Amino acid sequence: MIALSRAAGAPVIDRRIYGQFAEHLGRCIYEGVWVGQDSAIPHRNGLRIDVIDALRHIKVPLVRWPGGCFADEYHWLKGVGPERQPMVNTHWGGVVESNEFGTHEYFELLDQLDAEAYINGNVGSGTVAEMQDWIEYMTLDSTAPMAELRKRHGREQPWKLEFFGVGNESWGCGGNMLPLHYANQYRQFQTYVRKYGEHPISKIACGANSDDYEWTEVLMARAAEHMNGLSLHYYTLPTSDWERKGAALDFTDFEWHETLRQARRMDELITRHSRIMDRYDPAKRVALIVDEWGTWYDVEEGTNPGFLYQQSTMRDAAVAAITLNIFHRHADRVRMTNIAQMVNVLQAMILTDGARMLTTPTYHVFDLYTDHQDAEYVDVPVGAFGADVDATASFKDGAYTVSITSTALDREIDVEFELPSTPIEVLRAQVLGGPSATAHNTFDAPSAVAPVELAVAVQGRTVKTTLPPHAVATVRLAVAD
Length: 481
Ligand code: AHR
Fold this sequence. Notes:
Blueprint: E1 2-3, E2 19-21, E3 43-44, E4 47-48, H1 49-57, E5 62-65, E6 87-89, E7 95-97, H2 103-113, E8 116-121, H3 128-139, H4 145-152, E9 163-166, H5 179-191, E10 202-209, H6 213-223, E11 229-236, H7 253-280, E12 287-295, H8 314-329, E13 334-340, E14 350-353, E15 356-359, H9 361-368, E16 376-378, E17 389-396, E18 399-406, E19 413-418, E20 423-432, E21 452-453, E22 456-459, E23 462-467, E24 471-479
The structure holds alpha-L-arabinofuranose.
Alpha-L-arabinofuranose (AHR) is lined by residues 23, 67-69, 168-169, 292, 340-341, 346.
């Protein structure tokens, strides 16, 4: 039996680990969140009410925007004011981007979600002056030209900009740079991300592509003193082959296990990047920010290949849970992550079909994990409950939250753990499962996969439950002291 207990000096699981990523890609922004002022779909200031309500329920702490690869071809001035200037979205399907959703609409989205801002700036095809003007437009409270322009566009007060990313994937779609070249670019561009007023902007440098440890080495050696965070991108592909990634819905038992094995690689990546960061920054001032992660499959047949639309099953739920557990284990260094992406793209929380919407199994994992946000980390050693179980725990507001994932496909698993003090109330006991590993929600059956009550037995300090196959569960127990 596993004995769980709080440890002195345990890190807090930053709620920003539960961040989202929303790019101008496919139907993520348009239709996914923004339907515009004239839409028949119920909306508040152009943002669809059903999607906002669902996202508020999982307590989205922040949203990274506008990309992704799109960020390095985005020219923000085209997306403000009454006359928006369209552009071609060259990365994602070559479609015309109307720029109807821009800076003002993004901050309206954050207001409605009660979430923080994480904007990714354009280094690849932008200029230092353009980036500087954007920062002034958003955050300067004065009569300077950019602040005046913002006011003419209807926003008197500056916005609060918590995080600013200086370029995205600068080693690839963001400019194909070599690490030292980007380190220099970063140093130059970030200089003009000024702090106006009281509130400092946390600056995020573009980090490595999965296991590119040289990138982290060079960035930390040459630019660490100018950054608050360094990013990392890693996607889970069932086959690890970008040409033939595998299908989202139609997969074998072998592919289930392979996909979860690929997801677990996140632990090795964070461990090794953190080791490099520790050498330059032993106090862990610079956060490791995994601002793109999740599953990436072959697109759904019949959909635009540039739109990256995919379905989501219990396999994605297991990937989400396993990955969040890894982030918890590294909570001292990993202080923000952004799953890709929020709506209709890759491992989405929500899928829409015109006026219809559904929440995915991944969404339900984020729901089951809300009590871990800003909670004190409680260690659960890897494999503590056996090879087919992955678990995490935390403590907040007088209660322990224990989340347990069964990766077994063909059997139930009994789980037993002990708390340091006697539970006085079961505050939550729910499990997300489904008839098969491929179980998923459709627009005709949007709640086929949803959390149900989980039977839990409490005897003294001991808690027992039984997990069904391919399932993610959360038990939250209030304790006396
Ligand atoms: O999330 C989709 C794309 O994946 C992003 O635009 C890019 O940064 C990454 O390659």
